[in-house]
Amino acid sequence: MALSGIQIYKLLPQTNCKDCGFPTCLAFAMKLAAKQADLAACPHVSEESKAQLAESARPPVQLVTLRGANGVELKVGNETVMHRHEKRFFNKPGLFLRVYDTEKPDNIKLRVGAAHRYEVDYVGMALYVDGFAVHARGGDFGAAVEAVRAASDRPLIFIGDPDALKAGLAKLDGEAPMLGCATEANWEAMAALAKEHSAALAVEAGTVDGMVALVEKINKAGVENLALAPAQRSLKGMLTANTTIRRLALKKNFRSLGYPIVSFPGDAGDPERATVLAAGAIAKYGGFVVLDEFNPAAWYPLLVMRENIYTDPQKPIQVTPALYEIHEPGPEDPVLVTTNFSITYFAVANEVDGAGLPTWLVVADAEGMSVLTAWAAGKFDAESIAKAVKAYGVADKVSRKRIVLPGHVAVLSGELEEELPGWEVLVGPREAVDIPTYMKQVLA
User: Fold this and answer.
1) Helix, strand, coil % in the chain, rounded to nearest 5
2) What angle do CA 233, 280, 262 make, to 5 degrees?
3) What is the bridge-based pairing of β-strands 73-76 and 64-67?
4) CA within 13 Å, CB half, 147
5) What secondary structure letter does DSSP report for 405?
6) Which residue ranges form the domains of the chain, and what is each CATH number?
7) CB 50 within 8 Å of CB 74
8) Residue 15, SS3 per DSSP
9) Vertex 100: Cα angle to 105 and 77 (nearest 5)
């Protein structure tokens, strides 16, 4: 049972030293009870108290780590809030492609290989498939696992009866997969297998009460590295089950439900419906999302959606402020300026790069804000732009001193001329898509 703030306070040093970052030990204790602070922040707590406080220090959703070959890992869990604006979500769900042991090994290699090689750059972040699930359906499970491993080293989920999974586990060396699913009928054998191989175990039940009862049995058997797999497969059923589990774990500190959730959108059969279900699982607390088809047109929006949900809402996605060289610019080539908001940077850089135009791009530190937002907040003005130009030594790299402002901040042109004497200050277009045409017509 989780401890209250007062109970936690009694176990703290009670010195009010502020080393934890809070004004008093009581304030720190209240934050610990609310899962909004880490016990490690207190450098003076005794080992005895640490042991007693472990229950309250533990995140309400347990961390589960899957390990593939070559040390490749996926971490899911450790979540502390229902909604990302309350704090943020920490470990984004893993998206898995499922293959079946009834498929020919060569076909498995082709499917897995194509998914493994898929990687796209989204505003500086690499998007890719996180792992693969191998499902036993009466074929050669060991051969299927070998085929997957021949094409990818990413983490695995094994699905099937205990006897089939043993053949797959025998093919792994030092890995930590997830096994699924433990049910009322097979939980003892599945728990023993997970314990023997230090694997995570997915627990499946049709009701919350049934899930709790099953988890408690498995915990007593010595297995606590779990994930929950609600049996509901409809969109409404999945969202209801996922939300109920998450709410009970976070709001009621219900430990038997404090585990990541596994969702199987691939069971829908129809690829389009599976994509909708996967989006629902990502948005509502899915920790592992298993799909049967790999289609970049469907996976890309799911991966982008996941990144958008799991970024810190209080910290805009940003790139490092610097002077960027596009297409090996020379001393005669123009200088463009923008902010370090990732979407703004990549919108400008991609247009210039795609047009093949050699350009110096000054990315000023605007705390990750877009051009207009930063200007309105006083974070992107003539002084900050001039400071960036000087800090990056732009004047030493160009002989023709031309700098182009974003069209939305044309009002800064006069002030920038005063800040950068000797420079020709030009005003570019408002939209990034118009930059290539502007450069060819005005800056040629």
Assistant:
1) 45, 20, 35
2) 55
3) antiparallel
4) 23
5) E
6) 5-57 (1.10.15.40), 64-310 (3.20.20.20), 322-442 (3.40.50.11600)
7) no
8) coil
9) 120
Give just the sign of the alpha carbon dihedral 135, 140, 141, 145.
negative
Q: What is the percent of the chain with per-residue pLDDT over 90, rounded to a whole number?
A: 79
CB 165 within 8 A of CB 135: no
- State both tokens at 247: 């709410």
Q: What DSSP letter does each residue of 126-179 carry, written as one string?
A: EEE--EEEEE-SSS-HHHHHHHHHHH--S-EEEES-HHHHHHHHTT-SS-B-EE
Secondary structure (DSSP) of 326-359: ES---TTS-EEEEESBHHHHHHHHHHHHHTT--E
Element (H or E) spanning 31, and its range?
A: helix 25-33
- pTM for the full predicted model: 0.77
In the prediction, which pLDDT does 36 show? 73
- Percent of the chain's residues with pLDDT above 70: 98
Token duo for residue 162: 């205990």
The phi, psi pair for 377, rounded to 5°, reads -90, 0
Residue with tokens 């293959």: 99
> Which of 19-23, 133-137, 176-180 bottoms out in mean pLDDT, i.e. has the lowest?
19-23
- Work out the pLDDT band at 292, boundaries 50, 70, 90: very high
CA distance linking residue 197 with residue 202, whole number of Å? 14
**53 has a pLDDT exceeding 80:** no
Q: Which amino acid is at 415?
A: E
pLDDT at residue 422 tops 60: yes
Lowest mean pLDDT among 53-67, 195-209, 342-356, 420-434: 53-67
Per the listing, tokens 């880490």 go with 38
First to last CA, the chain: 71
Cα separation values, 60 from 93, 110, 255, Å: 16, 40, 7
Report which residue type is found at 47: E
- Cα distances (Å, whole numbers) of residue 340 to 33, 39, 286, 380, 409: 37, 34, 32, 10, 15
State the pLDDT confidence band at 204, using cuts at 50, 70 and 90: very high
Contacts of 336 (CB under 8 A, 6+ apart): 348, 352, 359, 360, 361, 362, 403, 404, 428, 435
Distance in angstroms (rounded) separating the CA atoms of residues 288 and 270: 19
307: which 2 tokens? 């990144």
Q: Which of 118, 199, 117, 219 is nearest to 158 (CA)?
A: 199
pLDDT recorded at residue 2: 59
CA atoms within 13 A on the CB side of 285: 28
What is the DSSP annotation of 226-288? EEEEES--SHHHHHHHHHHHHHHHHHS--GGG-S-EEE-GGGG-SHHHHHHHHHHHHHTTEEE
